[in-house]
Write a structure and sequence with these properties.
Helices cover 37% and strands 29% of the residues. It is elongated, with a radius of gyration of 29 Å. It contains 10 helices and 16 strands. Strand 7 and strand 8 form a beta hairpin. Helix 1 packs across helix 2 and helix 2 crosses helix 4. By secondary structure, it is an alpha+beta fold. It folds into 3 domains: 76 residues, Winged helix-like DNA-binding domain superfamily/Winged helix DNA-binding domain (Arc Repressor Mutant, subunit A, Orthogonal Bundle), CATH 1.10.10; 137 residues, Endonuclease Chain A (Endonuclease, Chain A, 2-Layer Sandwich), CATH 3.30.870.10; 89 residues, SH3 type barrels (Roll). The chain has an 8-stranded mixed β-sheet, sandwiched between helices. Strands 12-13-14-15-16 form a 5-stranded mixed barrel. The protein has a two-stranded antiparallel ribbon with strand order 1-2.
Length: 349
């Protein structure tokens, strides 16, 4: 019997040796068989057949029929491989638990590290999106939308605000406007860098070709950044290099389900301006610290003005319940009264 080479390789990927794979396939094809018949069909050395069968028995892939002359048969594939996958899953969970304890004890995490391979880069983008609690900044080629759409939907359901730039590759790609249900979407004809930044925790950055070229060029590399100051720079890099040079996918921005939390001040101001233009008054629950003495602060106030100075300095002027007016800036604010770490917007009709 000629065994499909692809099937043998897949069985080896599942933990069987090549000889075990050949014997199992031979048994599936033959049904109940004696050892000598298996040797002939599987083309394995006769002295090794009993050790191979013993290994398959341990893995739950073979059953033995006792009698004067022992015979063997393959366990039904759907049953056999369900057992095998469960065994893999159990072992994987044990290994994950053990290694996670060690991983979580690390005292130092490098702020910049490298990632190689298109699939690994995509997996990291999805991981960053999955971990987001408040905001995501994302720029991707249009051909990745199919992979990301359900993850963007899940993020939106968790209350995450996503600012998404889609590269159309010189007009070769089309984008379904339904994606605007899950993100604030802009499109750009000319491709640029791929960026995925969640809150101020982690950011992936790589070239456009990393996700669009075919191997071996498509192997590509990405950098993953965890340093806060670099994340600040990358937030404004996204805004100045991608966001303001892209066109909205739909003419009028959709009013989001509220309340929403924001961590990027430029995005907060953009959202407040949109809500005010629609006729809303906007309150904000602001969490952060006082700039002068660095003490924590949390308060609710009415936003009375937004400031965007040359697309470089962004701040809010708010009025607290006692009538006090103060200036609120984003992370690392120095000229305002309060440095905000999160801002929850509350529209009032």
């Amino acid at each position: 019997m000629q065994t499909d080479e692809k099937i043998l390789l897949l069985l080896q990927d599942l933990g069987l040796t090549r000889s075990e794979a050949r014997v199992y396939v031979a048994l599936v094809a033959r049904g109940v068989s004696a050892a000598t018949d298996i040797v002939r069909d599987a083309k394995v050395p006769h002295p090794r057949i009993y050790d191979i069968i013993a290994n398959l028995l341990t893995k739950g892939l073979v059953e033995i029929q006792t009698g004067k002359r022992r015979k063997y048969k393959a366990t039904k594939p759907s049953v056999a491989f369900a057992r095998l996958m469960n065994r893999f899953r159990e072992k994987g969970e044990l290994v994950t638990q053990y290694l996670s304890k060690i991983y979580n004890k690390k005292k130092e995490i490098p702020s910049i590290w490298m990632l190689k391979g298109r699939d690994n880069v995509i997996d990291k983008i999805l991981e960053i999106l999955y971990k987001a609690e408040n905001e995501v900044l994302l720029s991707i080629p249009a051909n990745l939308l199919g992979t990301l759409e359900k993850h963007l939907r899940k993020a939106e359901n968790r209350g995450v605000v996503t600012s998404l730039v889609i590269y159309l590759d010189g007009g070769k790609s089309q984008v379904d406007t339904k994606i605007a249900r899950y993100a604030d979407v802009r499109v750009r004809e000319t491709p640029a860098s791929i960026l995925s930044l969640a809150d101020f925790n982690e950011c992936l950055l790589c070239s456009y070709n990393t996700l669009t070229s075919q191997p071996p060029v498509g192997e590509g590399h990405a950098i993953v950044v965890g340093d806060f100051e670099l994340l600040q720079i990358l937030s404004y890099f996204f805004y100045h290099s991608f966001w303001i040079h892209s066109k909205p996918l739909i003419q009028e921005a959709l009013t989001r389900k509220y309340t929403k939390n924001f961590v990027h001040m430029w995005k907060t101001i953009e959202e407040v301006d949109m809500l005010m233009k629609k006729g809303y008054n906007v309150k904000a629950l602001i969490k952060g610290k006082n700039v002068i003495d660095q003490t924590p602060t949390e308060f609710e106030a009415l936003i009375i003005e937004t400031r965007n100075i040359n697309a470089r300095v962004f701040s809010l002027i708010v009025e607290k319940t006692d009538g006090t007016k103060i200036a609120v800036g984003g992370r690392d604010a120095s000229i305002e009264d309060v440095e905000a770490t999160t801002i929850t917007l509350i529209p009032i009709e």
